[in-house]
Design goal:
Order of helices and strands of chain B: EEEEEEEEEEE
Distance between the termini of chain B: 40 Å
Shape of chain B: globular
Structural class of chain A: mainly beta
Order of helices and strands of chain A: EEEEEEEEEEE
Number of helices of chain B: 0
Radius of gyration of chain A: 13 Å
Radius of gyration of chain B: 13 Å
Largest sheet of chain B: 7 strands, mixed
Helix content of chain A: under 10%
Structural class of chain B: mainly beta
Largest interface: A-B, 24 and 22 residues
Oligomer: heterodimer
Chain lengths: 107, 122
Amino acid sequence: AIRMTQSPSSFSASTGNRVTITCRANQSISSYLAWYQQKPGKAPNLLIYAATTLQSGVPSRFSGSGSGTDFTLTISCLQSEDFATYYCQQYYSFPLTFGPGTKVDIK
Amino acid sequence: EVQLVESEGGLVKPGGSLRLSCAASGFTFSSYSMNWVRQAPGEGLEWVSSISTSSGYIHYADSVKGRFTVSRDNAKNSLYLQMSSLRGEDTAVYYCTRGRYSSSSPDCFDSWGQGTLVTVSS
């Protein structure tokens, strides 16, 4: 199975900050990488797929980059509604695997 | 609007069984692969199973292989997960999800149900 890691596991930030979350796969997954946002008590929401493509309806302050084994999710200007946990997921091969998550909370 | 609505979960004794269902609406169900993803309390996301449009391709996580069975009824726009030999570590919120790429290949999930809690405990 492909192992996904994320860093940091959590951090505090202020609204207006630019934040970057890193996701790494232990083998190349090309661009088969998705990012999700999950708020407490809610289902996850797809933000980005194919490493860089913004899902319809997702604000443009979210962006993704990377290919192969190293990926990043960037939020250009953090808004109050962005405080949440973010997960990456590889869909290069079965079993599908998620990163452990990165929790972004308010400083 | 895409809607995925899971059936109610519940409390099950270890070794017991439970069948989850997911009612889909707002899209052509038969054109999309479907999946189950779970999340143990306070933990991260874990993929459980995927089923292709015509049920020809089915995949399971090793943690549930041989105990869980996924199925679908395209005529009823419904997805199912039959869970047996349940263990404490199966305690989780189970989400029904739609695959984004509508194929039998590994996929990401563009729509999620609200989730249903399954608790395995004596």
